[in-house]
Write a structure and sequence with these properties.
This protein is mostly beta strands. It has one helix at residues 52-57, and strands at residues 18-24, 30-37, 44-51, 63-68, 75-80, 86-90, 93-98, 101-107, 112-116, 122-130, 136-144, 150-155, 161-165, 168-172, 176-181, 186-191, 198-202, 205-209, 214-218. It is built from one helix and 19 strands. The chain has a four-stranded antiparallel beta sheet. The chain starts with 17 loop residues before the first strand and ends with a strand. The model has no long low-confidence stretch (mean pLDDT 91).
Length: 219
C-alpha cells in the first residue's frame, strides 16, 4: 500500500491465498482484499479488511475484520460504495458489509446473465425472462442498496456484455448499445452497422470498441 505522496505504508503477505481484487474505502481508512484459497480440497473465499492507520504502526494487528464465505461461493469482485459500504460479489450472490454487519443483497439463479456492484449506491443484475414458448427478453434489475428499491429496464435482445461506471450501465446488444441511468431511464441508444466487440464508460464519454477501431460517444 502506497500513500499519495509515494510513501510505502504497509505490505500484506498472503501465505496460502491468492488476491483476486482489492478496494479502498472513500475515507482512505480501510483496505479490503478479496482472497481465494486453492490449497485444500475445498476452494475457500474470504474477505480481509486492513486498517490503514494501524498498518502504519502495528502491521501484525492491522487486520480488523475477516469474512469467510460459504465453501460453495467464489469471490469475483469487491467495491466500496457510498458511506464506506463494502459490496462483495460472488459467483452465486452479492453481500454487503456496513460496519460489522454482513447481509445478503442479491442471490443469483439460473436466469441471471450478468451482475455488477461498481455503481454509486446500486447493484445491477440482468436476467433472462421468457416471453413466449421460443422467445425471451432481458430484464435489468437496478437495486438501490440503502432502500432495496428496484428500478427496471427491459430489452428484447439479450446483451453480449455489460459495463458500469458510477450511475451509468452500458448494455452491448451486438449492433446496439443502450446506456441506462441507475434510475432505470435510457440515457442514449447507439446503433451501429457493425458488430460491437466491447464498450467502456468513463465520465460523460463512452468508447465503442470494434475489432479494428474505437469510436467515442458523448453521453
Amino acid at each position: 500500500m502506497i500513500s499519495l505522496e509515494g510513501r510505502d505504508i504497509t505490505t500484506a503477505y498472503l501465505s496460502s491465498t491468492y488476491a483476486v481484487d482489492t478496494a479502498i474505502s472513500s475515507d482512505n481508512k480501510e483496505l479490503a482484499i478479496a482472497e481465494i484459497n486453492y490449497s485444500g480440497s475445498i476452494i475457500q473465499s474470504s474477505i480481509k479488511i486492513i486498517s490503514v492507520e494501524k498498518a502504519q504502526t502495528d502491521s501484525k494487528n492491522a487486520v480488523i475484520y475477516t469474512h469467510n464465505a460459504d465453501s460453495k461461493s467464489i469471490i469475483t469482485n469487491i467495491y466500496y460504495q457510498d458511506n464506506n459500504t463494502l459490496m462483495c460479489m460472488f459467483d452465486n450472490n452479492i453481500i454487503k458489509r456496513i460496519s460489522e454487519t454482513v447481509t445478503e443483497e442479491t442471490k443469483f439463479d439460473s436466469d441471471t446473465i450478468f451482475a455488477d456492484i461498481n455503481l454509486n449506491g446500486y447493484t445491477v443484475e440482468i436476467k433472462k425472462k421468457a416471453t413466449g414458448l421460443f422467445s425471451s427478453e432481458a430484464q435489468v434489475e437496478i437495486k438501490q442498496v440503502n432502500t432495496g428499491k428496484i428500478n427496471l429496464y427491459k430489452t428484447e435482445l439479450l446483451p453480449k456484455s455489460m459495463e458500469t461506471y458510477e450511475n451509468v450501465i452500458a448494455l452491448n446488444l451486438g449492433t446496439e448499445v443502450h446506456f441506462i441511468h441507475t434510475n432505470g431511464w435510457l440515457i442514449k441508444k447507439y446503433t451501429s452497422t457493425r458488430d460491437i466487440k466491447d464498450v467502456v464508460v468513463c465520465g460523460n464519454l463512452a468508447g465503442i470498441i470494434y475489432k479494428d477501431k474505437i469510436e467515442l460517444v458523448n453521453l
